């Protein structure tokens, strides 16, 4: 699998110096951003969907928000980051990218933030990539903002392979998070309001289309 991933990654187009520098910075500072195969796949799904409004839960340094905005020049985005240092980094990168007019960056806990502070009243696409143990709560909170036909994307659903193995083989400090993610996956796959597909892309992506 890693050989396949490496081969696929080698076929991805070279990014601009700006994006490549962001990728290198995240790698050096051990800040998690989407794997290249995952972000390229997500962008292709978004090209097919053509959402006009996107909500991202978990900005990190703003990498995925910038990539989505570049890919969909007509889209308006809202992105939320809890960590203060990452929020500041994301703010600086959005300014450098010239996207502050199209990307609303909010600082706060996505589970506590007031949705009335959002510039949009609904979102055609929601991308969840924050605390893995809280995915079901994120999904529940932001689902009402998604219209029929809208899509919720969730990244890191394989959690580096931990969701695929017996919970007793998972490091103790990760067990609650992994257990919550496993339960969320089961809940999501039978959710009456959504048609969900689980794809083994990167670290695992689910695509849930609202009926």
From TrEMBL:
- Do you know which InterPro entries this protein is assigned to? Cation-dep_OMT, SAM-dependent_MTases_sf, SAM_O-MeTrfase, TrmR_methyltr
Q: Where does S-adenosyl-L-methionine bind?
A: 34, 64, 81, 109-110, 129
Q: GO terms for molecular function, please?
A: magnesium ion binding; O-methyltransferase activity; S-adenosylmethionine-dependent methyltransferase activity; tRNA (uridine) methyltransferase activity
Any Pfam family the entry gives: Methyltransf_3
The record's keywords, sorted A to Z, are:
Magnesium, Metal-binding, Methyltransferase, S-adenosyl-L-methionine, Transferase, tRNA processing
Q: Which residues form a coiled coil?
A: none
UniProt-annotated binding residues for Mg(2+): 129, 155-156
Reaction catalyzed: 5-hydroxyuridine(34) in tRNA + S-adenosyl-L-methionine = 5-methoxyuridine(34) in tRNA + S-adenosyl-L-homocysteine + H(+)
Q: What is its EC number?
A: 2.1.1.-
A biological process (GO) of this protein is: tRNA methylation
- Report the function annotation for this chain: Catalyzes the methylation of 5-hydroxyuridine (ho5U) to form 5-methoxyuridine (mo5U) at position 34 in tRNAs.
Q: Which family does it belong to?
A: Belongs to the class I-like SAM-binding methyltransferase superfamily. Cation-dependent O-methyltransferase family.
Subunit structure of this entry? Homodimer.
Q: What is this protein called?
A: tRNA 5-hydroxyuridine methyltransferase
